[in-house]
Amino acid sequence: MADFKIWMNGRLVLQAEAVLPVNSAAVFYATNVFEGLRAYWNERDGELYGFRLADHFARLRESMKMMRFSVPYSDDELFEAVRAVLAGNEVQEDVHMHLVAYVGGAGLDATSPTGLYINPRRRQRVTEGKGVSACVSSWARTSDNAIPIRLKCGANYQNGRLAKLQAKVDGYDEPIFLNGRGKVAEGTGATFFMVRKGRLVTPPMTSDILESITRGTLMETICPDLGMDVQEREIARTELYVADEAFFCGSGYEITPIVSVDGFPLGAAKPGAITQQLLTAYMNIVRGVDKRYSEWRTPVYRPIVV
User: What residues are labeled active site?
Assistant: First the structure.
């Protein structure tokens, strides 16, 4: 967004000034790793809350480790960088950010010099009461022994780009990947859940999926709070067609209902009751309407005492 400045290597700059050398590994070989961060505006609190930032920073460092580079910023400095870009842009609305660590040197084996930027942007969410149509992609999810999905790097997303473009050409909103074993993996940038015979089911971590922070939030906290059990197991393609409900989840996607797969309607072909219940609970936590789990929410501005 032209009206949002970017935090780049310690200072806020206009988007036109946030540039990288064309011969850098970051540009030429996509030698970067990134995190998608969310911050949510709470009108009553007069506060903007970053959600689970520490967990995103930890995953960023794991990705950098696998890519064999690092950036010279501590977690405390990353917290302050997020606050600086949001407060510096005077953001008082929900916002999505890309936190990107990159290699600025040239060459396939370059590991330095490195840099980091945070790019805030508005991201449209699925309209209330609607969902997306999905298809099973003909493109397979890359494997842990090829380009591991646990590694959240820009190069990985070419796999998702191919699948997304094909889905759009074929008349669908989103693709669902199968892994090399022919089992359900995830979406392009979100993990997958379905409701089958009244029970929540999601693929295991060994199905070539991202180690999703949102997935963990649901499985470890929200679902137990709501008395819901989650079964982690492999999912066959045809189970998608007879699911009661399904949804994608991720920091960017939040909880996005899936209303059909390959033209087969799921349930009543609208967001189901369990999906809606999880979406409401999730949004209440991230926005701070539900005051529990305050350790997950990082305030940007000084809280207003009511």
Answer: 152
